Amino acid sequence: MPETGSDPAAPNSATERMNLHYDLVYPELSRWRRMQIPLIGWLGTLLVGAIGPTLRFEVLGYRHYESSWAQKRPVISAFWHRSIFPAIWWWRNRRVVVMNTTNFDGQWTRRVIERFGFWTAQGSSSRGGLRGLVVMAERLAEGHDVAFTIDGPRGPRYVAKPGPVMLARKTGHPIMVFHIGVERGHTFERSWDLFQVPCPFSRAVMIIAPLVRVPTDADRATMERKQSEMQGALERVKDLAERWFAMTEAERERIRREWAE
To answer: Where are the domains of the chain?
Structure first.
């Protein structure tokens, strides 16, 4: 019997919220938009495949990634949307599992990244996120790294979503945040994420922060602290990587020594 004053036809809000975060719903797209998905996917693949081999990478903090794998612990990567292009090239062919949204952008992006050896888990912070986290937990257990473009799928820019912290608590795997800055590139100023495409033969720097570890018995307060820790690490590596090529060589050498310690 429904409670007094309740509407027996009203949906259960808790159930609705659960379905929202677990069910996958592909948006209804016009025929024109559906036709664009494979076309943009191929163009994106060609662009990454043409520019990627010309990029000259320097990596700081890679030892953090190596230390986790030395313990046979795949990582939960988190990085900003802005760095997707060079990240695809650097992390290609490693079967990293990426959380991928089902919206229009996510559908053509999926085609690009899977052609470069990534796997995908469908979901986002707005729809199907819990399902995506379940898939990612399974892939971590199988020995695969997983990754989040952490301010997606639609922003706000440079504000981290909680997915990696939730997944780290569930699995015990560490969070690895990084950012890639390029010496020369084109920024799409009107895009919400300030998406950047490197120029051919540009230098690039990837900076990887110390790992963020979340206890599997973390309470709410601990989860909030770890979320703040991840946000702070993301901001730090972004600031360093974006300023890297404007620094003097002496400044860069000092930072290299700091990150090597």
So the answer is: 30-260
DSSP secondary structure code for residue 242 in this structure:
H
Q: Where are the alpha helices (DSSP H) in 23-144?
A: 31-51, 62-70, 84-90, 104-115, 129-142
Handedness of CA 63, 116, 238, 252 (dihedral sign): positive
Beta-bridged to residue 240, according to DSSP, are: none
Candidate from 33-42, 57-66, 78-87, 92-101 with smallest mean pLDDT? 33-42
Classify 93 as helix, strand or coil: coil
What residue type is 112 in one-letter code?
V
Q: Which fold has domain 30-260?
A: Glycerol-3-phosphate (1)-acyltransferase (3.40.1130)
Residues 6+ apart with CB under 8 A from 221: none
This prediction has a pTM of 0.86
Residues 134-187 have pLDDT tens digits of 899 999 999 999 999 999 777 799 999 999 999 999 999 999 999 999 999 999
The per-residue pLDDT for range 194-248, each reduced to its tens digit, is: 999 999 999 999 999 999 999 999 999 999 999 999 999 999 999 999 999 999 9
Distance, CA of 256 to CA of 251 (rounded, Å): 9
Pairing of the two strands 196-198 and 185-187 = antiparallel
